[in-house]
Amino acid sequence: MDGMTAEPVSVDQGVIARLKTALGEGGWSEDPSKLAPKLVEERGRWKGTTPLLALPRTVEAVAAVVGICCESGTPIVPQGGNTGLVAGQTPQGEILLSLERMKAVREVAPLDDVLVAEAGVTLAEVHKAAMAANRFFPLSLASDGSCTVGGLISTNAGGTAVLRYGTMRDLVLGIEAVLPNGEVFQGLKRLRKDNTGYDLKQLLIGAEGTLGVVTAASLKLFPRAASRAVAIAGLDTPAAAIALLERAKYESGGAVEAFELMSRVSVAFAVKNIPGVREPLGDVWPWYVLVETASGEDGAAERAIERLLAGALEDGLIGDAVLAQSEGQVRSLWRLREDLSAAQKPEGVNWKHDISVPVSRIPEFLTRADAALLHRWPGARIAAFGHVGDGNLHYNIAQPEGGDPVAFDRDRDAGAEVVHDIVAALGGSISAEHGLGAMKTAEALRYKSTVEVEAMRAVRRALDPKRIMNPRVLF
Ligand SMILES: Cc1cc2nc3c(=O)[nH]c(=O)nc-3n(C[C@H](O)[C@H](O)[C@H](O)COP(=O)(O)OP(=O)(O)OC[C@H]3O[C@@H](n4cnc5c(N)ncnc54)[C@H](O)[C@@H]3O)c2cc1C
Fold it and tell me: What is the pLDDT of residue 3?
């Protein structure tokens, strides 16, 4: 039984009354219209229930809620922007603790290149605050208007700039959190060097709400680039894309900010289903790459991409390319990439796999997975795309055109097993950036070693012996 089909838990009314008193007026809600959007996840695949929405505004209020829940053994699910894609933020009877009222950017410190933000601040607000101080926060996700600092940390989010700047794990210098016993961990340091034992903040990053509630974080800032350039290229094979990536890194002096691969099927869905999206190149290509470079020097990013594309065209690595000439063209190229997921929705039932393999093994993964899936599900439409510079693909499969959606939906887990077995054989991961949530936890047990799972369980038991924090998520 996975975490989404488990029986909902029930919470004692006396505990609910104590929580309401601790949170005070405006600090909680049972209003169905306020709860409704927080109980359905992005893709509408799972619906949740909760007896109480806790809306604390301070770290002290979060500590009071967790303290009461710890003492009474009451389970809690933390939630940020509710953009998670693995049902980790959807309660099944647990108390729902939303960080939406913890919205302050507490400090921007340009000399330290640090921004301190509370958990409920959205990624777009972080970008804005960094920009106002003439700095840059590099994490970039299509959900940036809604996803929050707390959620990004708890899922160790990735996105399009990992190639150059790393995941959230690389971008956090300090964390303030309430641990499962209700105590506040004051770890809001801003040090780039601190070798004083186990790094508790790194345990909380990627913990998906199982080791405590993140209430604030200090984030790394970077200088703003003087020039940026974005281009799209058409190619015949994923192997050509990997060869182009290697060239791009050297041509730009390591300044490739994004390198995204898109299959023809995924681009065709976007052109067909998203109003305003057009074919990016004159001809149709089996594969496309969107590449972005940046530089501290005026015009240098454009020059690097021009050199890259000219050389690749001459050597036959790519067949065609366009360099964006205006901010509008940059936006429309990125829009094409960011709309690929939404473009699949009208195509019926879709299976989605967020996988990673070593970059060099991407072509082999695609050859093996495509063959295995099409052999078993002829006509399935493979809409692969993603952050190929990180070895991360969103390997999505749309049902055969005109096929039976119910039958295809029934085979979802069988399809995932085929894909994930190939990923495991190539030394990859079945969750590159979205986490495990309640959706993939059982599946992950098939691939993790007992040693690793038992070590994780021991850490969790030590910090949360009653398993109150997001109990259906992780091991
Ligand atoms: C259009 C779209 C594009 C996306 N693109 C990407 C992408 O490129 N890369 C990527 O990595 N992800 C992507 N995502 C997934 C999602 O945006 C990220 O996982 C994001 O980090 C979730 O943030 P959130 O605030 O919405 O968290 P939520 O969805 O609310 O929660 C996610 C998890 O974190 C836990 N959590 C939330 N807040 C806290 C807290 N304060 N303390 C402890 N635990 C907490 C929850 O319990 C849950 O387990 C995308 C999603 C969408 C809808």
Answer: 58
Range 380-383, long-range pairs (CB < 8 A, 24+ positions): 380/408, 381/265, 381/347, 382/263, 382/265, 383/263, 383/265, 383/266, 383/269, 383/340, 383/344, 383/350
Q: How far apart are CA 153 and CA 157, in angstroms?
A: 7
Could you write out the DSSP letters of every residue in 325-348?
-SHHHHHHHHHHHHTHHHHHGGGS
For residue 140, what is the DSSP state? B
Measured CA to CA, the distance from residue 102 to residue 331 in angstroms comes to 31
> 193 and 160 in contact (C-beta within 8 Å)?
no
> 147: Cβ below 6 Å to ligand 1?
yes
- Residue ID of nearest Cα to ligand 1 atom 50: 143
Ligand 1 centroid from CA 139, angstroms = 13
Closest C-alpha to ligand 1, atom 41: 150
Question: 0.90 exceeded by the pTM?
Answer: yes
209 touches ligand 1 (CB under 6 Å): yes
| Segments in 48-174 forming alpha helices (H) | 59-72, 123-132, 149-154, 162-165, 168-171
Q: How far is the CA of 23 from the centre of ligand 1 (A)?
A: 25
Distance (Å) from CA 155 to ligand 1 centroid: 6
The tens digit of pLDDT for each residue in 351-398 reads 999 999 999 999 999 999 999 999 999 999 999 999 999 999 999 999
> Which residue is closest in CA terms to ligand 1's atom 52?
143
Q: Which of 122, 84, 222 is nearest to 164 (CA)?
A: 222
Ligand 1 atom having least distance to the Cα of 153: 21
Q: Give how far Cα 391 sits from Cα of 86, 95, 282, 450, Å.
A: 20, 37, 28, 26
**Residue 7 pLDDT > 90, yes or no?**
no
* Mean residue pLDDT across the chain: 96
Ligand 1 neighbour 143 (Cβ under 6 A): yes
Query: Whose CA is closest to 224, among 109, 131, 326, 124?
Result: 131
Q: Which residue has the tokens 């070693």?
A: 449
Owner of token pair 């009653």: 466
Residues 118 and 284: their CA atoms lie apart, in Å, by 46
Whether 178 lines ligand 1, by a CB cut-off of 6 Å, is no
Q: Residue 45: what pLDDT?
A: 80
State the distance from the centre of ligand 1 to the C-alpha of 274, rounded, in angstroms: 24
**Residue 152 CB less than 6 A away from ligand 1:** yes
